[in-house]
Structures are given as C-alpha cells and as structure tokens.
Amino acid sequence: xxxxxxxxxxxxxxxxxxxxxxxxxxxxxxxxxxxxxxxxxxxxxxxxxxxxxxxxxxxxxxxxxxxxxxxxxxxxxxxxxxxxxxxxxxxxxxxxxxxxxxxxxxxxxxxxxxxxxxxxxxxxxxxxxxxxxxxxxxxxxxxxxxxxxxxxxxxxxxxxxxxxxxxxxxxxxxxxxxxxxxxxxxxxxxxxxxxxxxxxxxxxxxxxxxxxxxxxxxxxxxxxxxxxxxxxxxxxxxxxxxxxxxxxxxxxxxxxxxxxxxxxxxxxxxxxxxxxxxxxxxxxxxxxxxxxxxxxxxxxxxxxxxxxxxxxxxxxxxxxxxxxxxxxxxxxxxxxxxxxxxxxxxxxxxxxxxxxxxxxxxxxxxxxxxxxxxxxxxxxxxxxxxxxxxxxxxxxxxxxxxxxxxxxxxxxxxxxxxxxxxxxxxxxxxxxxxxxxxxxxxxxxxxxxxxxxxxxxxxxxxxxxxxxxxxxxxxxxxxxxxxxxxxxxxxxxxxxxxxxxxxxxxxxxxxxxxxxxxxxxxxxxxxxxxxxxxxxxxxxxxxxxxxxxxxxxxxxxxxxxxxxxxxxxxxxxxxxxxxxxxxxxxxxxxxxxxxxxxx
Length: 599
Ligand code: F6R
Description:
The chain is an alpha/beta fold. The protein has an eight-stranded antiparallel beta sheet with strand order 3-2-4-1-10-9-11-15, covered by helices on one side. A seven-stranded antiparallel beta sheet has the order 5-6-7-8-12-13-14, with helices on one face. A hairpin with a 4-residue loop joins strand 7 (165-171) and strand 8 (176-181). Helix 4 packs across helix 5 (136-144), helix 16 (443-456) packs across helix 19 (563-580) and helix 17 (469-485) runs parallel beside helix 19 (563-580). The chain binds fructose -6-phosphate. Fructose -6-phosphate binds at residues 301-304, 348-350, 353, 356, 400-401, 479, 483, 596.
C-alpha cells in the first residue's frame, strides 16, 4: 500500500523522474500524491531546503505545475498515498517535512506509537501540520541530527518506530536519501551514470535499470555518493548483492488496450500456456512436498483466497488429498497445531500482503516449511519461502486481480494432477481451457457478454451460485463485480440458498448460475429453479444450456478446468458492467490498493 519513489542522479530532472515513477506505482494507492525535490541553487532562500508539490487525487488526473517538473534537481522523493491516518487532504499527502524543510519523509506502513512520539516532539518545540502518523519521522530525524549524522539519525529514528514500516528520507544538505524497512517492500536500483533509485516495487524502476537489490527487513540503504547497505540493528555496512531483473518495460504499458484490466484479461490464454509448457517440474516438486508433509495448509486473501479454496476441491477431486485452507488474516488464530512436519502454501500475487506474511512468519518460527506461490519476484513471501513457485503471469497493474488468479488456479490444478501422477491430463485440460478463452475473447462472444451487462447495469444486487469447485469461483466472480462495477454481489454455495439466502430473492433479482457438466449440474439447476420460482432472473454459465436460463453464456466442457472460462466470463462481465455504469477508471477502484501491506 502506498507507492514510494526516490532518485539521486546527475541528470538534473529528478522531480520529473520521480513524477514518472510515481505514475507507474500509482496502483499501490491513489488518494493523493506528492514530491519533494532539492533544487540546485545558490540562493540562500532555497539552498538547503526541499521544494514540495502535493495534490489530492490520482497523479494521472492532476493538472501539474510543469515548472516544478523542470526544476534543476538531482535529488527527489515522492509518494502516492493510500490513506490510513488522517483524511485525504493535500496537507496529509506525503512527503512530510521537518521544521526547517531540510528533511522530507515518505512512508509505507503504520507508525503504531506515533501519538506518543508526536507528544514528545511537540514538547521539544516541533511544529506539526498534518494528522498523519508519518509526520513524526522527519521531526525525529531533525531532533537526532542535533547530535549525530544523517544516516545514523535516520537509523535511530527508524528504530523508535513501532509497527511494520518502510521509510525513505531525503536530506537537502547532505544530498542523501536514506531508506529503511521492517515490513513493506523496497527495491533499490543502479542505473547508467551511477543514478540511484529506490521504489516500492521494481515495476517503477525497470524502465531505468534492471540491476536491483530487494531490501531485506531490518536493512537500511544510503543513496548519495554510492549505494551503502547497512544492517539496522548494529549499523554495520554489508556488501549489496545486485540481481538482474528479467522484465520487459513494455509489460508495464497498456498498449492497444483502453485499460490494464482488459489487457490483463486478454493475456490469460498465454499465462496458462506458459504454465503448461514450463511448470511441470515445479508442480512435481510441490506435489512431493505435499506428500511428505504432515498437514498442508493453503492461505491467501481476497482473490488468492478463492484460488486456495478452489485448490482444496482440486486436490480432493484429482489427488484424493485433503488440504486445509484459511484466509490469511484468520490463520493467525488457527496456527496452534502447526509442527515441523507442517507445510504452508501461501498464495499471493504481490507476495507482500501482510495478512499472509504475518502468519507465515509465525509458522516459520514453529519450524513449518513454506512453499510460496507468488507472482512478484523478490517479494517478501518469495524471500521468506523455503520453496517458491513464481506464477509467471507478468506484471499485473490493474488493482483488480485477473491473470494472477488464473495462473494460481493453473498451478494448483497442475500440482494436483502431479500428485495423482497424471501430469499429462492436467496439461491437456489446461490447454483446452486456454483454447476456450481464445474463443471467449473474440468479438462475437464479447458482444453476448455486453448484452448481459446491459441487462444487469441497473440492478442493485447480483447473486452467483455454484457448488463444489464452482462455489469457489462464484465467490471470485462476485468479488470482480463488486470491485469493478460497485454493484452489490454475493456468491453462495447452491445448497445454502434454502438456509436463508433465498429470502433475498424478489421479482427480477439476477442470479448467475455456474453449471459445469459434472456431478453438481442437476442440483445447481434445481437451485436455479427455486430462485426462478420466486421471480429471479437466471443467467447460466456452463457447457449445457437449460430451459431455466433466461440468458446463457456457453463454456466448453473441460472437466475441472471449466472453472477457468467461468471466471474469465465473469471478469469480462464485471469489466463491461463498469463501463455501462460510466466508471471512468476500472483499473483503480475506489478505496482499494494493489498491494495490501497494512493490517
Ligand atoms: C481482488 C484482489 C485482491 C487481492 C488480495 C490479495 O481483485 O486482487 O482481493 O487478491 O488483496 O492480494 P495478493 O494476491 O497480492 O496477496
């Protein structure tokens, strides 16, 4: 949550570089943004000061003062905010300054003890202007600077912060940027002519350099004359080990698509094929770990939790193996029975979700093995895991997860087949699913989805029902509709309707029915009839039409992989519902952020 970008270099356009970097990180939070820059000038008024520009709203929508961007500057830090403490106002936007405007701080996380620090600093004469927790950071550094250098004063300040935090602090006098972290991610890069970058994730800097280090927790880095990596507890310098990213900058662009969301939906056949052709060994290794473990637990949040839930059905059906599942934030309260023989499979696009990272850390302390399935190389979960599978879905920029979900499902399905020693069958049905998606993504099919979106655009509620595997995907489909179109949508196990939910059905209530050609078909059709009998408007998604459906969107019949076209049809429906409702930027739904690093 929140995007951070810092730059030190000789190009003289530091503010502009940070501005462009923030645009690439905006998906991490878009309540407000701001940049602090050190101008090259001999005028005493600005000589040792940072100039700040801040705005409420998305960076792409701002009518920016172009003079600020052309300031002659070699050092700048910026931030795009997902608000936690203090409302969405220009004053609360980062960067925050000390009393002398020499020190600027940007921050990702929550300073849990900020009130006590603020009181202490106020008593010492520091003036606060915002309601944020972050503002204590530049004042703490300013206070410590009275008796030590910039790097050590930042280190001592950071050590006083409670909570999981990543901070980037700029100093106009020493012309350095010091960054430190305990929780949220930070990546440092070195570009041409010794340019130095720090950012919340590599997608922000990959256009400048592929030579990066992912900062570990309790490390600090000083950018200035050179990159200095420091161990936080004892302040010892350590040798930075740079790695080269295998990323294409073009992947971070929309290309011919109007939105990243649509682009990423269209990339899904390729994502599946990549897994089919390259992941057999990874799936076999993970299957081996599951076989050896005494108790395996999958965990994830939001979309990833739906993939994990689907995984429990896949392992049961295909490999006759019971695997537990919990949403990340609840696993904290379920970990008492973990042992050294347990295996945890955290599933996460970003690899940073704190609700997953935290229970993983606790499980590691109990000696459990961690096999992470993540999309982002170098992310926290990637680094903490004993064994890791990178999803290979490519950069996912839309806040709404699509291709990462399909990649998660594909990896889990292949692993279940590997456990059953039927990898060939797994690969074959995944290829069928990829072919089916190619048909769905053609104009004719898209038009039929658009017609359903027109039917649904004025509805207040949409219900989606499924059984078994299709229950997990019903939950995912409703999440896509909620996030993208802001229509209230709920997913239910078909069998649960009569236990209460059916009370919600009235004349015209839309109910989408996931009806694969499997043992759930007859029962889910009966549930659809029950809804229709009470006035419900039924939309069927599956391989077989039925007279109960008023609208029907056909998938191929691909056994357990039928969930893949089901979900992709729902992703498209959610996207076109958003357009029907006049939502301008479905890539960035209100109140959300891509990487959720606070609890
Ligand atoms: C919804 C969505 C979120 C994420 C969730 C976990 O479209 O993307 O629900 O799935 O915040 O994020 P990761 O997968 O990064 O752990």
